[in-house]
Write a structure and sequence with these properties.
This protein is α/β, with parallel strands linked by helices. It contains nine helices and eight strands.
Length: 292
């Protein structure tokens, strides 16, 4: 399947690279993929192709500073981490919601679950299914992972950002390079057990999440060291008026091998993709899901 390249224009004028995967037959809905921090849209290609083969008109996007939406140099590139939600992902939702006859759904990965509550147009999404969303605090992680994350924040991160002017994450084999503003805000919020909800400078953000009414499912693998279920529960509690439902995935008993934080979108996880797509297709849509 060859996707159609799309150029999106965010509300502030920033140009974003996106790809649209059109179904060959009848369309059963439109789907936006909200990716993780530092993960380019090409990582979600197999999922997008699969969703399109099931009748979903699917859009992936590179946030500003990432993938094909990256400027010539990240050194000196200024942005707010939350721009990825409030501006970039919002533009993707606006595009897919133009046809009012088709329901619009969203699948999130990690940051995608953070982004949903920040969208100015989240009310245009009929259902939201997110994988690997958590609070980011090292205290929710297993001991070895805590040590690795602390080393990244306090040793590797400061050295790389002083050297390059941005977080050269690719040198650590951990994903795309990140703009300096993203690194600083992410590091700061990961100090708190409930992420930016506990940051005194972010007063009022929890009220934005309380306005969300879209039914949500949040699925986390038991072997996800960055976002285990208790980390998910700490963050997702802010979606208190959605009746969100948490799903704990045991990869061993489910025969899925290793999932970790990135395996949700690898081909071995096709069964998880189908769970989400089936939920989108259920009718009628409930006003809320069962409590987590």
């Amino acid at each position: 399947m060859t996707p159609e390249p799309i150029e999106l224009r965010a509300a502030d004028g920033y140009r974003l690279a996106a790809s649209r995967y059109a179904p060959a037959g009848a369309t059963c809905g439109r789907l936006v993929v909200a990716g993780a921090t530092g993960v380019p849209q090409r990582f979600y290609r197999r999922f997008a192709e699969h969703a399109a083969s099931r009748g979903f008109d699917t859009l992936t996007v590179d946030y500003r500073g990432i993938g094909a939406s990256r400027p010539a140099s990240l050194c000196g590139f200024r942005m707010d981490y939350l721009d990825w939600a409030r501006l970039d992902l919002a533009a993707a939702v606006d595009l897919m919601a133009r046809d009012a006859t088709q329901p619009v759904f969203m699948v999130g990965h990690s940051f995608g679950g953070h982004a949903f509550g920040l969208l100015p147009n989240h009310d245009r999404i009929s259902r939201f299914y997110t994988f690997a969303t958590g609070a980011g605090w090292h205290g929710w992680m297993p001991l070895l992972e805590r040590a690795r994350v602390q080393a990244m924040w306090n040793l590797a991160g400061p050295v790389l950002t002083r050297w390059k002017g941005y977080l050269a994450w690719s040198l650590l084999g951990m994903g795309e390079d990140l703009p300096l503003g993203v690194y600083r805000q992410w590091k700061h919020w990961c100090r708190y057990p409930r992420y930016f909800f506990d940051d005194p400078a972010m007063a009022g953000i929890e009220e934005r999440f309380a306005r969300v009414r879209t039914p949500i499912v949040a699925a986390n693998a038991l072997d996800d060291r960055w976002a285990p279920p208790r980390s998910r529960d700490a963050f997702m509690a802010a979606y208190r008026n959605t009746g969100w439902r948490g799903m704990d995935i045991d990869p061993r008993t489910a025969g899925l091998g290793t999932i970790g934080h990135m395996g949700y979108f690898r081909p071995a996880a096709t069964r998880l993709w189908d769970d989400a797509l089936r939920w989108f297709s259920e009718s009628p849509f409930p006003s809320t899901a069962a409590p987590a």
